[in-house]
Design brief:
The protein has helices at residues 3-8, 11-20, 35-43, 58-82, 87-90, and strands at residues 92-98, 109-115. It has one domain (3-84, 95-114). It contains five helices and two strands; from the N terminus they run αααααββ. The chain has a two-stranded antiparallel ribbon with strand order 1-2. By secondary structure, the chain is an alpha+beta fold.
Length: 119
């Protein structure tokens, strides 16, 4: 439980409400990420030189992962714990992808969002 939540909960009501919680078999729990998991995911990235929304290519992240694994793991875990997804990770560049037909007809394109690699 985050410090902010702990500071804002009346301990008496918190203790009573914990006894009343019935766990649902349909609920999920996401374990905190480890640095090893973050490094493993980065190693599986393609060597693409094209950049995402934040103009950072996957190849750069892959090369620098040992330097950024700590802050990246921490940011991910804070996001999971707090339930807040950083605004920067919600942004995307939208690029048109040609499907077929007349290239001058906008109906022949579909939008492709390009998000941050960290999202």
């Amino acid at each position: 439980m985050t410090e902010l939540v702990k500071q804002n909960i009346n301990k008496r009501s918190y203790n009573n409400s914990c006894k009343e919680i019935k766990h649902s078999p349909n609920s999920i729990f996401i374990s905190p990420a480890t640095e090893e998991e973050v490094v493993s995911l980065a190693k599986n990235l393609k060597e693409k030189l094209t950049a995402g929304y934040n103009d950072m290519p996957e190849s750069l992240v892959k090369q620098c992962i040992q330097l950024i694994k700590g802050p990246l793991t921490h940011s991910s875990n804070v996001s999971l714990r707090s339930g807040v997804f950083p605004d920067e990770w919600k942004s995307a560049k939208v690029k048109p992808l040609y499907k077929k037909g007349d290239r001058y007809d906008i109906q022949n394109y579909r939008p492709i969002p390009v998000i941050s690699i960290f999202a």
